[in-house]
Amino acid sequence: MPINKTTPEAMIFDLDGTLFQTETLLLPAYHATFEQLRAEGLFQGETPDEKYILSGLGMLLEHIWQLVMPDADAAVHRRADELLLELQVEGMARGEGKLYDGVADTLRELHRRGVRLFIASNGLEAYVKGVIRNQGLEPLFEAGGLYSAGEYATRSKVDLVRQLLDKYGIQNAWMVGDRSSDVEAGHANGLFVVGCDYAGFRKEGELDRADVRIADFRDLPALLEA
């Protein structure tokens, strides 16, 4: 499918590592999750190194837990899902979690210019919508446009983005994200891909195929003028 590099009618954003500094909410909840798993007799030993959960950001949750707890069974993984979501939602309510510098103002500027804004994330529905709502960003996004693998039960971000494009009749959009799954989802759907190279979660080479890379989210509006 040919890549359309003209000024987009819409931008589709990944959430974790793109808009949201995930670790500011995730890591306290991660450690609390393992405390509870141990209390319930579902896990023994030390909490797995944070590097495993951070390296899995952008993946589907089932794949993340296979990295973090490869020897645990599926029931333990599902309980970890429940606990991590619950603890992150509680953290949001306490005001935990931060956006990257300039994200809110940049999104407002894009919205002011008439760009339609969407989310496509491999996270759970309550988490994705909760982050956007608690950060006060919801009015900037298209109604119903916060897409998550948790809500739509997609097996890949390629499918999630395709559903979004079809639902809203979008012909020309940019995909903006920090992982190879974002690059793949964008190109498989004929989108121009902006790679966000500032989170530090990615592996070497993940953004090599992005059409352009930015080192600061605030660089995004200038790409519209290039």
Number of alpha- plus pi-helical segments = 10
Which residue ranges are poorly predicted, with pLDDT under 50 across at least 5 consecutive positions? none
Ends: how far apart? 23 Å
The geometry reads as globular
Second-tier CATH architecture of the largest domain:
3-Layer(aba) Sandwich
The largest β sheet comes out as:
6 strands, parallel
**Total domains, how many?**
2
Look at the helices and sheets and give the structural class: alpha/beta
For CATH, the homologous superfamily of the largest domain is named as HAD superfamily/HAD-like
Rg calc: 17 Å
Task: Identify the CATH class of the largest domain.
Answer: Alpha Beta
Mean pLDDT over all positions: 93
Share of helical residues: 40-55%
Question: What spatial order of strands do you see in the largest sheet?
Answer: 5-4-1-6-7-8
**Series of secondary-structure elements, N-terminal to C-terminal:** EEHHHHEHEHEHHEHEEH
Q: Would you count the extended β strands for me? A: 8
Strand content: 5-15%
CATH topology of the largest domain: Rossmann fold
Short description:
The chain is an alpha/beta fold and 226 residues long. It has helices at 23-39, 50-55, 61-68, 74-93, 103-112, 125-134, 149-152, 157-168, 180-188, 220-225, and strands at 10-13, 20-21, 98-99, 116-121, 146-148, 173-177, 192-196, 212-214. Helix content is 45%, strand content 13%.
